[in-house]
């Protein structure tokens, strides 16, 4: 059996990748391993469209806001790839999503010695001052756990994915199977929905593409300088300390910085396409405002129903894509019986300390930290890239403040000297 780890990371997306880098850069030796069920690093591969860009500045990479001198920065990646000057001349804060994914892969390769891929984690149990779990055929013991199991596709009640019904996360995985496409339906009003509509409209020039949303149209994201302060690291302190009613108001005020909104350039491009087709009299991009999708069949049959007047448009779609967002993975499922030791607030939500640690009953002495699923306590940046670099620094500092880990790390450092 491996020696007891100071921390075990469950899941290896961008959040725990950033934590692995923080471990690598820390002055004291930290025994850490990360366990990922995928065979290799991957982040929303099904939506890595050629022209899709990030919606956060490249400076909000894996490290810069925590350690601006890090060799794991996006700028160091560009230098190694031979594109640093080209990127500077591009005069753009927002890289292509494919480029940022390549940056993640580059960073993940550099810390791959901390990671076990293809390792499915089983139920977690208490062992002494820490935890024990199976990862594949291996039994792992750790004093602290960091759960970063990502997001799960959100589909409307009663809708199940199938050959003709997809969530947008599977877009690029499934599109190669489509032939002779005549009609496509895309449900949703956010960035991914708009990108999916634009993608199908370009990819299949003979197909009719239906965009369906309950709003009157796509709404622009608020990325103004003052509104973006909601993503500042200091905003986490403000949100955490605020009363519950203030938390709800803050989320309502600033939802349009991230949820169900679209970049202005893409909105304008889609409007240009709709207008051009009206002029030419060959309209195949149909955006159904104040509408919903009903009577969805596994064969792609469906009805687009107007919420305003009840009118119904039957569609025999080759594929229906739900760009209806994500929800945080429930950590209670992974914790198994240990989930019963988690304390909850009056709304049934997990209690989480400021350093992202689950509040457990007195029988659990190890620390369980969350990267994601803490919107109700820490605000809008809970699972976003904006605050990742700072968040992992806070989590690692908290872990190393735990007496046993600090004492053993200091002892190991002295032995090295």
Q: What's the β-strand tally?
A: 18
Give the amount of beta strand, in percent.
15-25%
User: Sheet with the most strands?
Assistant: 5 strands, parallel
Mean pLDDT: 92
Counted by DSSP, the helix tally is 13
Low-confidence runs (pLDDT<50, min 5 residues)? none
Helix/sheet category:
alpha/beta
What is the end-to-end distance?
27 Å
Strand numbers in spatial order across the main sheet? 3-2-1-7-18
Tell me roughly what share of residues is in helical segments. 25-40%
Radius of gyration: 23 Å
> What spatial form do the alpha-carbon principal axes imply?
globular
Task: Describe the structure in your own words.
- This protein is α/β, with parallel strands linked by helices and 417 residues long.
- It is built from 13 helices and 18 strands.
- The protein has helices spanning 14-25, 74-81, 84-90, 97-110, 171-174, 191-203, 233-241, 244-254, 264-280, 331-335, 375-378, 388-401, 403-416; strands spanning 7-10, 32-36, 115-117, 125-127, 130-135, 138-142, 144-147, 151-153, 165-167, 183-187, 208-212, 285-288, 291-294, 301-306, 312-316, 319-322, 326-328, 367-370.
- Strands 3-2-1-7-18 form a 5-stranded parallel β-sheet, with helices on one face.
- Strand 1, helix 1 (14-25) and strand 2 (32-36) form a beta-alpha-beta unit.
- The longest helix has 17 residues, at 264-280.
- The relative contact order is 0.17.
